[in-house]
């Protein structure tokens, strides 16, 4: 099989820079990382200098994702040789044990790291990941809560906890976690949108109102968030359709829903400018919106 | 009173000025590497890490609380500030002010700091003073008053000499401070050869002693949080949003990237 550099006609520097970009932006495209990284390690190890260690780490994690235990093992050996007794390398060894489903051995390894250094967050999080992988979500939630009591600022953990709660259908607590995220990242439209969706799922007039507002906020932060636009339309029409609201609220919400509908139409017109299939999709959207209007009145 | 211009032997430039620059620079570089070797890891306890994060969370609540619903904000404020069992009211950390005498690790740190920085400076300053004494080294470009003479003209006993002419010891001190920017160029920003920064740190050292002040920090946060009110940023978000059409420019124009490169 042709190597990456032949296939795309790139030099090793470009491959190394691409790996760095993936590393810094937290991409999880493991197959591509394994392809590019393996070639870099095998062919150009001497030219990489000290960069090679972090590339070993990156490639090892990607290899675990792709079930390439041979590659993961060789990377781990190199790292162990260079950094004996390092906690970071120990954690990688633990991750490999997890990939082989040897969960007890992995847990023992992480416990030993924590005994040595109680402030090591990586080992704690891996322990929680093991519980999640074994399907013990209640215990995972409990441990994650304990972790967050100590490390209140860990945003990744808050997000993970909100996901676990959503899977357990405990929407109130999921909303709490998302509020933490919204406070620390007020300009991130995705958290606003996820919060709005959780509130919409919770149901009840107050929550619907909140969800409508937060869909609007997500749209304000990013005008192109189609999901928030649909959410706004749905929540507004839902409120307007409810029998218990006052006339003013009903009128306001119908106005919001109408505006959102118009924007959706506009977006689909823009989307289908060049293609032939566009007419069908635009028509489908219009029909869907029409049907919602009918249930409203 | 026009001072006659002194003409210095050009040998001075070759054998005094330049060697002093080299010596200062090399000593600085050596100091940087020695400080790296002697560095001890500062281990933070779990409690310290946890407390600092709690303080950050409380500060974020104060600053960005307006983005979450009022109920949630009040819930969190209550958690922190409640009279009986709010976090800031209830948690009292055992405070041991780390005085240099009692805390052994602080003592060794101080000693290392002194050895690496102050001692070489004194030694080399004295050696230069002894070696290169008895003659004028250079002239500072701005006029100085006579008060500076005993300080800057260490080995030269000439009453009528203009204070701008300085001895080699003062040239050495000038170098110590002047080469700071060279160090940051060559050794990177946070280098151990940067003496003036270390001296500044020693002066403001009291302000940085966080572990001793956890209780005070908690009290300060409690007061600040008491004063914060909730001004919901989303009061009229729909009106603001719908005042104009959505900006959908460029939403469907870019092609999807194919392949790795």
TrEMBL record, chain A:
What cellular component terms from Gene Ontology apply here? EMC complex
Q: How does it sit in the membrane?
A: Peripheral membrane protein
Renumbered ranges of TPR repeats: 155-188
Q: For the EMC2 TPR-like domain, which residue ranges apply? A: 91-199
Family according to the record: Belongs to the EMC2 family.
Chain's role: Part of the endoplasmic reticulum membrane protein complex (EMC) that enables the energy-independent insertion into endoplasmic reticulum membranes of newly synthesized membrane proteins.
- The name this protein carries in UniProt is ER membrane protein complex subunit 2
Species of origin reads: Aldrovandia affinis
- Upper classification of the organism: Eukaryota, Metazoa, Chordata, Craniata, Vertebrata
From TrEMBL, chain B:
What Pfam family is a match, any one?
EMC3_TMCO1
**Stretches that traverse the bilayer:** 12-34, 115-136
Q: Name one GO biological process term.
A: protein folding in endoplasmic reticulum
Family statement: Belongs to the EMC3 family.
Superkingdom, taxonomy of origin: Eukaryota
The membrane topology term of the UniProt record is: Multi-pass membrane protein
Sorted alphabetically, the Gene Ontology cellular component annotations on this record are: EMC complex
Q: Which InterPro entries match?
A: EMC3, EMC3/TMCO1
Q: Chief subcellular site? A: endoplasmic reticulum
Q: How does it assemble?
A: Component of the ER membrane protein complex (EMC).
Has keyword Thylakoid?
no
Q: Sorted alphabetically, which SMART domains does this protein's record hold?
A: DUF106
The alphabetical list of record keywords is: Endoplasmic reticulum, Membrane, Transmembrane, Transmembrane helix
Q: Which species is listed as the source?
A: Aldrovandia affinis
Subcellular location field: Endoplasmic reticulum membrane
What is the name attached to this protein's record? ER membrane protein complex subunit 3
């Amino acid at each position: 099989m042709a190597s990456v550099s032949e296939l795309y006609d790139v030099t090793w520097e470009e491959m190394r820079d691409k790996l760095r970009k993936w590393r810094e932006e937290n991409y999880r495209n493991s197959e591509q990382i394994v392809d590019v990284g393996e070639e870099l390690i095998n062919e150009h190890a001497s030219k990489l200098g000290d960069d090679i260690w972090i590339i070993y780490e990156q490639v090892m994690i990607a290899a675990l994702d792709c079930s390439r235990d041979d590659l993961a093992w060789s990377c781990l050996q190199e790292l162990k040789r260079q950094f004996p007794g390092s906690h970071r390398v120990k954690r990688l060894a633990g991750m490999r044990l997890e990939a082989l489903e040897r969960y007890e051995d992995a847990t023992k390894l992480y416990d030993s790291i924590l005994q040595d250094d109680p402030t090591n967050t990586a080992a704690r999080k891996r322990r929680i990941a093991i519980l999640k992988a074994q399907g013990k979500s209640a215990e995972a939630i409990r441990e994650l809560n304990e972790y967050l009591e100590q490390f209140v600022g860990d945003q990744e953990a808050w997000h993970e906890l909100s996901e676990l709660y959503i899977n357990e259908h405990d929407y109130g607590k999921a909303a709490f976690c998302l509020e933490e995220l919204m406070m620390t990242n007020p300009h991130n439209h995705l958290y606003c949108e996820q919060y709005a969706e959780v509130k919409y799922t919770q149901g009840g007039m107050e929550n619907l109102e909140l969800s409508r507002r937060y869909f609007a906020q997500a749209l304000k932060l990013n005008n192109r968030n189609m999901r928030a636009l649909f959410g706004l339309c749905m929540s507004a029409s839902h409120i307007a359709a409810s029998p218990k609201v006052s006339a003013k609220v009903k009128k306001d919400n119908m106005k919001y829903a109408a505006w959102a509908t118009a924007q959706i139409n506009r977006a689909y017109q823009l989307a289908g400018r060049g293609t032939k299939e566009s007419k069908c999709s635009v028509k489908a959207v219009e029909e869907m919106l029409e049907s919602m209007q009918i249930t409203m009145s | 009173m026009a001072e006659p211009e002194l003409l210095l032997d050009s040998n001075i430039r070759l054998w005094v000025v330049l060697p002093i620059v080299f010596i200062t620079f090399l000593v600085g570089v050596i100091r940087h590497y020695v400080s790296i070797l002697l560095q001890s890891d500062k281990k933070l306890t779990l409690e310290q890490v946890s407390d600092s994060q709690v303080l950050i969370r409380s500060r974020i609540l104060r600053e960005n609380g307006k983005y979450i619903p009022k109920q949630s904000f009040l819930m969190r404020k209550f958690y922190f500030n409640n009279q009986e069992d709010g976090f800031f009211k209830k948690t009292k950390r055992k405070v041991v002010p780390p005085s240099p005498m009692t805390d052994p690790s602080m003592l060794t740190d101080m000693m290392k700091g002194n050895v690496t920085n102050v001692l070489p400076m004194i030694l080399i300053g004295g050696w230069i003073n002894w070696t290169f004494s008895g003659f004028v080294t250079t002239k500072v470009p701005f006029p100085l008053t006579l008060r500076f003479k005993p300080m800057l003209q260490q080995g030269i006993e000439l009453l009528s000499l203009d204070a701008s002419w300085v001895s080699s010891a003062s040239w050495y001190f000038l170098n110590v401070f002047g080469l700071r920017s060279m160090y940051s160029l060559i050794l990177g920003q946070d280098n151990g050869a940067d003496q003036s920064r270390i001296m500044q740190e020693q002066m403001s050292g009291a302000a940085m002693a966080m572990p001793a002040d956890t209780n005070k920090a908690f009290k300060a946060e409690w007061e600040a949080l008491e004063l914060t009110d909730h001004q919901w940023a989303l009061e009229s978000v729909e009106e603001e949003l719908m005042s104009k059409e959505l900006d959908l420019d460029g939403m469907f124009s870019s092609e999807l990237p194919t392949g790795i490169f």
